[in-house]
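just leaving the lab so this will be short. below you get a single protein, a line of residues and a line of whole numbers that encode the local backbone shape. id like you to explain what the token line says about the fold, in plain words if possible. thanks a lot i owe you, the record is right below:

…
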Amino acid sequence: MYVSIDPAHALAAAPDLRAPRLSLIMVVYMTGPALIESVRHVLAEPAVDEFIIVDNGSTPVDAAWLRELSRREPRVRLLRGLGNIGFARAANLGAAAAKGEDLVFLNPDAFLTPGAVAALVDAARDRPSPCVVGARVFNLDGTEQRGARRGEITPVTTLLSLSKLSATLPPLRRFEIHREDEPPPSYPVDTPTISGACFYMTARDFHLLGGFDEGFFLHVEDIDLCWRARKHGGSVLFQPNARIVHVGSTSRENPLVIEWHKGKGLVRYFLKRADSKRRKALALLLAPLILTAAIARPLLRQALKGRMSARPATIAG
């Protein structure tokens, strides 16, 4: 059972105080230095009435800082004590504890920019329900990050994307799912898949879908949520006017472990949505290749990094 640490003043608050309209949910696990900056940006956002932090595991220093934060900041509620139960389950716990009618999910290494929350909420007006609205995600250098606007994710498009064949071979470009190189729209547009780094839903819509599928431990749960929203006749929107900066790769977890969970999650997702024997057979056939491609990425990065560091330094004469 998790322990909820509420602000001290909230325990003695009068029962007729205004209920929070919007709750922001953040799942934390060995995040690193980006956590403090992310929290600072959330607390600077007046649209966030309630800030729920689910601590899946932090260093002793970060855990102590989070406990102190929850005691001194009126909007912060800290849930802790279950250990690393996976992102999907932790996010569902946060959503179950949230009192707001609106929910925003934000990664602990992502920074809100002014007006981002309001833009997310505004995009959902008069859209088919259940509605998921994703933000436009940027790297630290100002370039748009992959994943915030993606096409239909299938075994074939995933394999070609992971191997970068769809991005490098012209005949295969129609299979490319990432759209960050395309000119951004000036208004919210329908897109099959948004990024789980920052997105909005009403609490009603989130619970209508049953929240995240807890069979996904880490990664792909956002892809699955988008698919289920569309399957239920709802909408998935990319809101270009809601901007966040996502550091990425800040977790102290081994990259191989992270990519293994991602690959395993993709295989599970494809088997879950296979609606015919042919599609199930295709998912099973490509599963080993998808897992291999996912794990190969961090290994390749490590090899390239090692090769670069092994080069002798050049001394200018």
Summary: Residues 11-16, 313-317 have pLDDT under 50 and may be disordered. The first helix runs from residue 8 to 11. The chain has eleven helices and twelve strands.
